Amino acid sequence: MKQAQFEQKYQERWQGFERLIQDLEKRKNKRQISTDNHYDFPKIYRDICSHYAIARQRYYSPVLIRRLHALVLAGQVQLYRHQTIWLWKVFEFVLATFPQMFRKHIKVFWLATALFYGPAVAMGLACYMDSQYMYSVMDRWQVAEMEYMYDPENKNIGRKEEREADTDFMMFGYYIFNNVSIGFRTFASGILLGIGTLFILFYNGIVIGGVAGYLTQLGYTETFWPFVSGHGSFELTAIVISGMAGLILARPIFAPGNMTRINALKRAAQDSIQLMIGAALMLFIAAFIEAFWSSSTSVPISVKLGVAAVLWAGVTLYLSLAGRTRSEH
After folding, report:
1. Angle, helices 221-254/106-129, rounded to nearest 10 degrees
2. Are residues 87 and 122 in the same domain?
């Protein structure tokens, strides 16, 4: 292809990219090009890089090569600038937006906490006093499997030192899927007038509390509590926050306030989705701890319990203090 044909074919593309670069250099409130075109920036930039390489390979005029080179450099600046902004937004969400949103709806959190931990404590005490209560929420084969898993006499319990790394990652993936699916169901069922969220919080509380009370009653404390106490700080808190998000989503259905139900629901969805994203990140961390730390049998029990105490304190301080503004004091 001759240079004249090449320029004629892509001239409009280059001019459009120049306009896009100029628009991206402006402040957000002064931009004129649609956001959809901004999202196309990486693809257009790759095309410009390709055109620049072709121009050099075919020995087109220095003027054209310099123009395309200038576009490539300008595009590179914008590309890395926006990558940096994206990373900053992630840090801002983790360090400020999420904990601030959590504290904004702290009363709903305490409600979700009561709905989860209340049944958990009650069922835990019941199963500790009388193990037969465990069979009201789990089948006999499930109870037998649970006993085998945490039996101190079972020499295969936990993660052995010789377990291969690919097995660790496989379990990590499984825990992520399991944790996030529980959290998402707890959140999404809030749209069903909140009944689904209430049920899932209540049911999970009963099962988790029952398991804790039952295994403690059997004397399996040295295998059960060191295993669950570490990742539990993130996992259990995230489940409660997922329930909190579900209840926030359900509230406008009953009490829209001065807004229409649709508008109230939209506003509630914005808050609840941010909480759910934060909960998902916590569930991801919980899965990592569970796969690579909780299941390890080479770590002394005292160390595991000590780390668990630090993790619980860390989660509490993070949600209580991170991103705190003067107006919150």
Report:
1. 140
2. no
